[in-house]
Design brief:
Blueprint (H helix, E strand, L loop, with lengths): L2 H4 L8 H11 L2 E6 L4 H6 L2 E3 L1 H10 L4 E5 L2 H10 L5 E2 L8 H4 L3 H9 L5 E5 L4 H4 L4 E3 L4 H6 L6 E4 L2 H10 L6 E2 L12 H10 L4 E4 L5 H4 L4 E2 L2 H10 L5 E4 L4 H8 L5 E3 L20 H10 L3 E2 L3 H17 L1
Parallel strand pairs: 1-2, 1-3, 3-4, 5-6, 5-7, 7-8, 9-10, 9-11, 11-12
Antiparallel strand pairs: 4-13
Helix pairs in contact: 2-15, 4-5, 5-16, 13-14
This protein binds 1,3-dihydroxyacetonephosphate and iron/sulfur cluster.
Length: 318
């Protein structure tokens, strides 16, 4: 047994420098979501929301992609660019939405609604994507729903996004898979109302995965990129943010004077509004992933082919 490795004593002193060196040596490109730790975002070649990262993964030419995000994002990258190995720092980085919609159960749900088209949020497994007509992200969901005018439509797997998107697109007849994000669902509407009284000057920016009672109090509802852009557009105005606070890093880099307050959670004693999956990725795991060339996310070829069509369609329409 390699004892130093087993004891975790093989960690270089300057992790950042070691990661950059390995990245260069191995021809790797690092993609990171806005919910990653700041130090991971700072080492990435591309930092973005799920749509931007899917696009980057499709277009990239390199020897390997290291995806610092959650499993469904890395899987989407592997589907879009099958010629390039996609590595992840932590294979356990899942997502409550993707995990709460198992392909077999979703197949039965679709079968209960003959003739319905299927629009799936990108936060889903390859198996569920393969059963879909079109994929969407939070930044293009309204537009994607509008492409199904007059058609019976299933929306999965986020019930909160479905409710918001249905309202925006004038559809109250969506057939909805009742999943939820364990991070966004736990923002407290009551706590937010109190906070707004303390900060009457602040604008409230929220992600559409939040509960309706939170969205009702928001001045602006958008994807992570939308929230970041909105916060930057008014650098002198305090912002209360109802999404994972990983987005603070990009905002503060561009507007260091900005006052940012995270919307309160239901339980103020825990960090429930930090995504426990996203935060599994650390600098140390990123280093090991580059050094050891793994873990790697793979998708069986036939499944990847089926899942590719609706993702590519979304990218063409976006
Ligand atoms: P975005 O598409 O806004 O980046 O959201 C991804 C996500 O997982 C939100 O919880
Ligand atoms: Fe999934 Fe929610 Fe985490 Fe986003 S924040 S990756 S939707 S669990």
């Amino acid at each position: 047994m390699d004892l130093p490795k087993a004891l975790g004593l093989d960690r270089p002193e300057d992790l950042e420098a070691a990661i950059l060196e390995l990245k260069r040596e191995k021809g790797a490109v690092i993609l990171a979501h806005f919910y990653q730790e700041s130090e991971v975002q700072d080492l990435a070649d591309v930092v973005g929301d799920s749509l931007a990262l899917a696009r980057a993964a499709q277009e990239i030419e390199c020897e390997r992609i290291v995806f610092c995000g959650v499993h469904f994002m890395a899987e989407t990258a592997a589907i879009l660019n099958p010629g390039i190995p996609v590595l992840v720092p932590d294979m356990e980085a899942g997502c409550s939405l993707a995990d709460g919609c198992p392909p077999e159960e979703f197949k039965a749900f679709v079968a209960e609604h003959p003739g319905a088209k299927v629009l799936t949020y990108i936060n889903a497994s390859a198996g569920v994507k393969a059963m879909s007509d079109l994929i969407c992200t939070s930044s293009n969901a309204v537009k994607m729903v509008e492409t199904f005018k007059g058609e019976k439509l299933i929306f999965a797997p986020d019930r909160h996004l479905a409710r918001w998107v249905g309202k925006e697109a004038g559809r109250d007849d969506l057939i909805v898979w009742q999943g939820a994000c364990i991070v966004h669902e736990l923002f407290s509407a009551k706590g937010l109302a109190k906070l707004k009284i303390q900060h009457p000057e602040a604008e409230v920016l929220a992600h559409p995965e939040c509960d309706q009672a939170v969205l009702d109090q928001a001045d602006f509802i958008a994807s992570t990129t939308g929230i970041i852009n909105c916060a930057i557009a008014e650098p002198n105005r305090t912002a209360i943010i109802a999404t994972e606070d990983g987005v603070f890093h990009s905002i503060m880099k561009q507007c260091p004077e900005k006052v940012l307050i995270q919307a309160p959670g239901m339980d103020e004693s825990c960090e429930c509004n930090r995504c426990p999956y996203m935060r599994l990725n650390t600098l140390e795991k990123l280093y090991r992933c580059l050094r050891d060339d793994g873990p790697q996310v793979t998708v069986p070829e036939e499944l990847a082919k089926k899942a590719l069509r609706p993702i590519e369609r979304m990218l063409e329409l976006s």
